[in-house]
Prior knowledge:
Elements: E1 4-9, H1 16-29, E2 36-41, H2 47-54, E3 60-63, H3 80-85, E4 90-93, H4 96-101, H5 106-119, E5 122-127, H6 131-135, H7 139-154, E6 163-166, H8 180-195, H9 199-204, E7 206-209, H10 215-222, E8 229-232, H11 239-251
The protein binds 1,3-dihydroxyacetonephosphate.
Amino acid sequence: MRNYLVAGNWKMNGDMASNRELVAGIVAGAPDTDRVKLLICPPFPYLAAMAQATADSTVVVGAQSVSEHASGAYTGEVSPQMLLDCGCEYAIVGHSERRSLYLESSAAVASKFKAALEAGLRPILCVGESLEEREAGSTEAVIDEQLNAVLDTVGVAGLETAVIAYEPVWAIGTGMTATPEQAQEVHKHIRGVLAGHDAAIAESTQILYGGSMKGENAAGLLAMPDIDGGLIGGASLKSADFLAIAEAAAQG
Length: 252
Ligand code: 13P
């Protein structure tokens, strides 16, 4: 049986004082069950401090992005090893904001995934379609292209310690959530693609839903058989909101 992963993507928010307060609230209220793991992904400058703040808890820390390079003249970039050094266990790759605002191609995302994995981080691969793509009936084709770029680069074995997050672009930050049935349909498809390569890895891989997940809609989404947690933006910025989702997972 797969456990739940409830992950907060803080995006570019907060400052040292407010982030310390947020992490303290999350640590204090984390559900006391092995069934649910909580992950926070603060901006780069706060990673080390947040890792220290969670050191004696079950909450773990991840980065929102990672360089595909190990070191050198890459101004503004942060290597996988640096993230490990700061206490990260996970790194998000291919978030739709990185793909659309910073023009990260699926090939670049696959390189980042590979670099993170080889360094010992657990990549969280984000995939998802835009509203136009959904309306054109190409949701599965878009997901397949994003997923296959990674599968072609690292093979299905590369997914063994990784996580996939389905984040329909039209649901991110819009308050428009995919229905549990819509999300389940895509999650099932993703698991099917993995099963085409390796049944055991398909069965064990956690697939998170992201896109306006909050306390009020989490239980319905998490009740779906192929939804193993959430990647949460807005509702991860207040400990009570984030913990409401964690609690829904603990009850699920
Ligand atoms: P929201 O929860 O704010 O829609 O953001 C989702 C997201 O992008 C998480 O990575």
